[in-house]
Amino acid sequence: MATSWKTRLIHPAVSAPEGFRSLATPVHRGSTTLFSRAAEAQDNWNQEVAPYSYGLYGTPTTLELAARIGELEGANHTLMTPGGQAAIALVYLAFSRSGGHVLVPESIYGPSRDLAIDMLAGLQIEIEFYDPLVGSRIAELFRPNTQLIWCENPGSVTMEVQDVAAIAAAARSHGIVTALDNTYAAGVLFDAFANGADVTMQALTKYVGGHSDLLLGTVSVRDPGHYERLGRAHQLLGMAVSPDECSLALRGLQTLGVRLAHLEQSTLAIANWLADRPEIALVLHPALESCPGHKLWKRDFSGSASVFSIVFRDDFSEQEIGRFVDALKLFKIGYSWGGVTSLAVPYPTQRRFRPYGDRLVRLNIGLEDADDLIADLESAFAKLAAPTGAGTDCSRP
Ligand SMILES: *Cc1c(COP(=O)(O)O)cnc(C)c1O
């Protein structure tokens, strides 16, 4: 059939040579995916039973990343989400219902807490915050309508290490789903499923991406029933991910091992140096004894990561701590972590358990030379001790 050039723009008669073999996973983009016959067309989210029915449910690029994360985590099924926060929302919406009760550790990632308070409360789901160090005493908080328990190990600002095994065992005996935010451990330093979690999610934005240039999340499960609930919710919410982002994450995955090993050593060197500083009351790094839950970290983790917090002595004001952060040169000020650049952010932590007030600064250690980072911190401490510039600081006696 002779066709116009306009038609050939859409249906070309030529194509590139076949047989290309590269080490990189190709980027397969697509909304529409093609069926061979009309009878095969079906809108099924489960790409394990209905291969490639719509781009929303996956392309070979996104499904390869999902499968590789699932393999690392020891999951049976992994779903991709547009970010870590979307993964959290997906878990909430799949496993809690109107009239239900959900337990959330007070150490939970801030936007996860906000989602619970601002949205779920409006859906008649009752949220109760618990002390992250509660352990098996979590059972005292169970009610007949408790549907879901969140854990985050460790909490990514106040760093409490949780007894996930004890919490999950108690939950299981009452038929309650335990979900874990496993972002700190990059899905590898803590074995969520071996410790009894039913659902584990992580923000690939952090360590898997590793370069502060993408947003992605995953939700992984072992149980087919849990997979059904999540997959259906994922479809209904339209949680599409970009194959380009997944391609970057697949590249990041290849260097995750060396980056984590290097970051662990640099971060420990800096955390230990900070622990000896007279300005610092507490270093909240799970590998240090000063961190709440440190013994559980020793029992349960195969390593530590690059994010931790410092708490200044209580005679430092919020303004002085802000001045310390502003004086840093190599450490940049910004949210998120797990990339190659060191970051510092003050976090107010007014709350019931372990309130650190305005004295907490969270650090992310990047791939800069650790001695240079220590020198940067040292010169910021020096400026704190001897304020310079216009006027005197009247905020302290
Ligand atoms: C960053 C983060 C998230 C959210 O991830 P995004 O990809 O930024 O949406 C969730 N949980 C924890 C612990 C995080 O640090």
Quick structural overview:
By secondary structure, the protein is α/β, with parallel strands linked by helices. The protein has helices at residues 5-10, 60-73, 84-95, 110-120, 164-173, 224-237, 243-254, 256-275, 294-300, 318-327, 370-385; strands at residues 77-81, 101-105, 126-130, 146-152, 177-181, 199-203, 217-221, 280-284, 307-312, 343-349, 357-364.
Strand order within the widest beta sheet: 1-7-6-5-4-2-3
What small molecules accompany the polymer chains? pyridoxal-5'-phosphate
| pLDDT < 50 stretches | 388-397
Number of helices: 11
**Overall form:** globular
Mean pLDDT: 95
List the domain count as a whole number. Answer: 2
Number of strands: 11
Largest sheet: 7 strands, mixed
First and last CA, distance: 90 Å
- CATH fold naming of the largest domain: Aspartate Aminotransferase, domain 2
Rg over C-alpha atoms, rounded to the nearest angstrom: 24 Å
CATH top level assignment of the largest domain: Alpha Beta
Estimated share of beta-strand residues: 15-25%
What share of residues is helical?
25-40%
Order of helices and strands: HHEHEHEEHEEEHHHEHEHEEH
- Alpha-beta classification: alpha/beta
CATH superfamily of the largest domain: Type I PLP-dependent aspartate aminotransferase-like (Major domain)
CATH architecture assignment of the largest domain: 3-Layer(aba) Sandwich
